[in-house]
Amino acid sequence: MLEILAKLSTNLQPFRKLTYLLAVFLVGIIVTQLLQTPSSTQLNNPFAMLSFVGIIWLLLFNILLSLFHNIPSIDEGSKGMFTHMKIKVQRSFYHLLALLFIALTLIIVFLTARILRV
């Protein structure tokens, strides 16, 4: 599981700056939509709601790129016992983060379906 997330994170690193640009664009859409519409129709604004969902997904994407970029690999070389134990502890911490990431992804999928009423 960690190897898949690490490979995915490494392969998607070139898109990091694009996600920042897209997030600024979506925040701009939300701000302009909230400033242009009267206060009674702000709750039913589809562009602001879609932009909000997009920002949530971009945040999750950036979490993937940030967390799983430098996972220590298991090397059975001539390293010492303490170094080997340190790598195991670090990898177990990354396993916990991976489980939290998957749970967060499922929660965001559920929230997206509820917000968009699919």
Report the radius of gyration as a whole number of Å.
19 Å
Instruction: Kindly give the count of domains.
Output: 1
Strand share of the residues? under 5%
**Mean pLDDT, as a whole number?**
85
Percent range for helical residues? over 70%
List the total number of helices: 4
The helix-strand sequence is HHHH
Please tell me what the overall shape is: elongated
* Beta strand count: 0
Q: Largest beta sheet, briefly?
A: none
Tell me the span between the first and last alpha carbons. 30 Å
Q: Give the uncertain stretches in residue-range form.
A: none
Secondary structure category: mainly alpha
How is the quaternary structure best described?
single chain
Which features characterize this protein?
single chain, about 120 residues, mainly alpha
Characterization of the model:
With 118 residues, this protein is mainly alpha-helical. It has one domain (2-116). Helices cover 75% and strands 0% of the residues. It has four helices and no strands. Helix 2 (16-36) runs antiparallel to helix 3 and helix 3 packs antiparallel against helix 4 (81-116). The chain is elongated, with a radius of gyration of 19 Å.
